[in-house]
Design a protein that fits this description.
The chain has 79 residues and is mainly alpha-helical. It contains 4 helices and no strands. The protein is globular.
């Protein structure tokens, strides 16, 4: 089995927000299937970015705009 590539959307959901697919889907008011599509494509639709910023702020994290474009280097994490 291959290594799963970390996309910007997956990075934000897992590493920044620490949320499961279902938790993130509930927060965005979309289906888990939609979140899976975001994870695979790497893109979180613009309409949800305000919510992502709010969720991050609740966790004490300031989201960098660049995170929506590319995953920062993380040792041991495939990009």
């Amino acid at each position: 089995m291959g290594v799963r590539r970390i996309t910007p959307a997956l990075f934000i959901r897992q590493h920044i927000l620490g949320m499961t697919t279902r938790e993130f889907a509930a927060a965005l008011k979309v289906s888990a299937v939609s979140v899976s599509r975001y994870d695979l494509s790497g893109e979180i639709p613009d309409v949800h970015r305000k919510t992502v910023h709010k969720l991050a702020k609740e966790r004490g994290v300031k989201v960098k705009a660049s995170w929506f474009q590319a995953v920062p280097f993380l040792p041991g994490v495939p990009t």
